[in-house]
């Protein structure tokens, strides 16, 4: 991430060491990380859903953060990850999604507003809160279908990449055979 993106994502100009510490502190037993891969299996968008400790004020909450590579922006990937995170959180008993963002992070705040979140600004910072409905049989099935579709998509991209690698290898072999054949003819 470039410095401007780090500033928008973390609310400050995070150094490499600070980003590494953030990654090291991810609790994969508690939190969730979702991603979108392009056809070359490059991670182009990633979201973090951090479950908050329960408090008397809320049954359970989760904080959402997302990063999308500059070359992949404007395609709705951040919103897709937010929708998936909402469904995922809802099916785990979360009743409130929270987004902390800088007031200037228009893309993140637009995602929250479009989902129906209430956004409150306090100086240079904003907090968006979205109440989630309880899980239903329909939401559980929807999440299962989404997860299966994502797995199929990844496997198709992975297999296509293998086919491309095999084509490249066969092309090299064919060129090598042609070179040997041409050298023996002379």
Give an overview in words:
The chain has helices at residues 3-10, 16-24, 77-90, 106-114, 137-185; strands at 32-37, 43-51, 61-68, 96-102, 118-122, 125-131. With 186 residues, the protein is α+β, with helices and mostly antiparallel strands. It folds into 2 domains: 3-135, Gcn5-related N-acetyltransferase (GNAT) (Aminopeptidase), CATH 3.40.630.30; 137-186. The chain has a 6-stranded mixed sheet, sandwiched between helices. α3 links the parallel β3 and β4. α3 (77-90) crosses α5 (137-185). The chain is elongated, with a radius of gyration of 22 Å. The termini are far apart.
The proportion of strand residues reads 15-25%
What topology, given as strand order, has the largest sheet?
1-2-3-4-6-5
What's the CATH C level of the largest domain? Alpha Beta
Number of helices in the DSSP assignment:
5
Largest sheet: 6 strands, mixed
Helix proportion: 40-55%
Estimate the mean pLDDT confidence.
89
Pattern of helices and strands = HHEEEHEHEEH
Number of strands: 6
Pfam families: Acetyltransf_1 (PF00583)
Protein name: GNAT family N-acetyltransferase
InterPro entries: Acyl_CoA_acyltransferase, GNAT_dom
Organism: Ideonella lacteola
